[in-house]
Design brief:
CheY-like_superfamily, 6-stranded parallel beta sheet, single chain, elongated, Rossmann fold, Response regulator transcription factor, alpha/beta, NreC/VraR/RcsB-like_REC, transcription regulation, Arc Repressor Mutant, subunit A
């Protein structure tokens, strides 16, 4: 089974290595790009069988790869996506599994790329619609499954961490380079996911920060 792949990785060395591995196993890398904006453009142009992308990359050097993947899945719900990360971030995993019902989704640590056969097999399985999670990611998910923040997206966790520092919404918006309306929406989502409803007791914003600090 030969796949058409669009690849996004900001490290030129890592990117070339991934291209070499995939090509050696008979797959065609239609585009290999270094930032999230170029990833979206490449998918639009090439209509690949699967996207393989790093989570953290330009232009903001945050979770741009994940956000690009989420946008692509919203536009193309059946597009398989395999994400790579240097570190385990559980909120990424939770958000990832929400994309398109969790089918055709993968999350691997970059160390796994060293096991070439395992990595290529994961690419093929994700392209076929399977869900492939790094064993270490699964272990940490099970170990920390009671974390009250597990349902928050990476961006929502960023907003909550700034709330914990005492930042007002306008300051959070400036720090994250988004609109204040976007911050208000994120906070609304945070409060909802933490079960802090308007009719609850106490100041919801304070309670959300306390949940963050406990976690």
């Amino acid at each position: 089974m030969s796949l058409n792949v669009v690849l996004a990785e900001d490290s030129a060395l890592m990117r070339d290595g991934l291209v070499g591995v995939l090509t050696r196993f008979g797959h065609r890398v239609r585009a290999a790009v270094g930032d999230a904006d170029a990833l979206v453009d490449a998918v639009r142009e090439h209509g690949p069988d699967i996207v393989v992308t790093d989570i953290r990359m330009p232009p903001d050097n945050g979770d741009d790869g994940l956000r690009a993947a989420a946008a692509l899945r919203r536009a193309h719900p059946t597009l398989p996506v395999l994400l790579l990360s240097q570190y385990i971030e559980r909120s990424y995993t939770e958000h990832l599994l929400d994309l398109g019902g969790g089918s055709g989704i993968g999350y691997l640590l970059k160390d796994r790329v060293g096991d070439v056969a395992w990595f290529v097999d994961a690419v093929v399985r994700v392209a076929a619609g399977a869900t492939v999670m790094d064993p270490e990611v699964v272990r940490q998910l099970l170990h920390r499954r009671h974390d009250p923040l597990r349902r928050l997206t990476p961006r929502e966790r960023e907003v909550l961490s700034l709330m914990a520092e005492g930042r007002a919404n306008a300051a959070i918006a400036r720090d994250l380079h988004v609109t204040e309306a976007a911050v208000n929406k994120h906070i609304g989502n945070i409060l909802q996911k933490l079960g802090l409803h308007p009719d609850g007791e106490g100041h919801r914003r304070v309670l959300a920060v306390l949940a963050y600090l406990r976690a």
